[in-house]
Structures are given as structure tokens and as C-alpha cells.
UniProtKB/TrEMBL annotation:
Family: Belongs to the TMEM86 family.
TM spans (from-to): 37-62, 74-94, 100-124, 159-177, 189-209
Keyword Transmembrane: yes
Domain of life per record: Bacteria
Taxon lineage: Bacteria, Pseudomonadati, Pseudomonadota, Alphaproteobacteria, Rhodobacterales
Biological source species: Aliiroseovarius zhejiangensis
Location, primary (coarse class): membrane
Alphabetically ordered keywords of this record: Membrane, Transmembrane, Transmembrane helix
Stored InterPro entries: TMEM86B-like
Membrane association type: Multi-pass membrane protein
Protein name per Swiss-Prot or TrEMBL: Lysoplasmalogenase
Intracellular or extracellular location(s): Membrane
Amino acid sequence: MIYLPILLGLGFAAAYFPLSSTPQSWARSIIKTVPLLAFALAAYLAGLGPFLVVGLFLSALGDFGLSRDGDAPFLYGLSAFALSHLAYILHFLGVSDAQIWDAFSTVPVAAIILVTLMVSTELWLATHTGHLQWPVRIYVVIIGTMGLSALTLPFGWTVVGAGLFILSDVILAINLFRMSDTHHHRLKAGYAIWAFYITGQALILWGGLQA
């Protein structure tokens, strides 16, 4: 029963690949939203804890928001993902029974690289986001904190999943704010964003199931 929604989610995720570069439509939005809804259902049925379930569900809402055009849906999607990361932070720290700063003593190199990436966004991202500068800045801090909380866990599927989630958001930021609509890598970037994102979320769920 648990694996049925996971397979459903992966099936819809695969179906979204050819749609990732197509214009906005309700069918596209629905197909993009289903995978994380299915993952959230699987987490709920498996009894993986409220924060993981909420994090996956909020990610589905974020997927829907980012599938629509305009600043308002973008901010809605960004807010939903920010809240999902906060839920993941609570989940990861609850599992590891550690504090955020413990990442700097257990895996200092990875933690420093992550913080350096967060700070670097002031140079290559923040100045290119216009009136969305502060929402993006806040989001960067939250997703970076999510990454640090994942680093308090033993290395495994969840840590890899969190890393892929962050990687997908880095590519998404470049795609949205640094690439023109006619950039020759834009199509490839769209595929990479979805591949890293859905794999990362699936591994976070899988890590919860394995634990």
C-alpha cells in the first residue's frame, strides 16, 4: 500500500519531463503537482512523522505555484517551499537529535561549502532578482539551513536527497534570473531542475522509509 503512491508519483514525475518546457496550462500544473502529493501520502501511510509529511505536501503546493506564470504565483510557490524546508529542518533535527551547528563539527568541509554557496548568492543571484531580492534572500537562508540540518544526519539517502534538492534550486535560480528565454541551455536546464528535484525528494522520502 505504501509503495503504490510512490510508484504513482514517479509515474507522473516521468510524464512531466516533456512538459517542463511547454507553456503554462492546467494539465501541466496538475501533472507537476501530483508527484509530491503522492509522496506525502506515502509518508503519511508509513507513519514517518508529521514534519516529513508536511514538508512533502508543502512542496507539492510549491510545485503548483511555480508551474503558473507571474510574480504572485512565484511568491506563493517560493513561500510554500520555504515552509517545506522549515518542516524538513524540524524533521531532520528530530531524527538526528542534534543542533544545526553540529554540522560544522561532524562534516566541516561540507558545511563550509554550503555556507559559502549561500553567501555567494549575493554576488551572482541577489542583484539580478529585482523587486524579488528580499524574498529570494530569505529563501536562500532557509534552504541553506535545511542543508545544514541534513548534514547532522549520518550520510545516506536523506543527505543525498537534500543535496540534490539544493542543486535543483541553484539551477532553477540560474534559469529564472540569469538565463534569457532564448538561451541555448534553457531546455537542458529545465530537464536538469526536474530530474535533480524529483530525485532529491524521492530520496528524502526513501531515507525516511529506511530509517
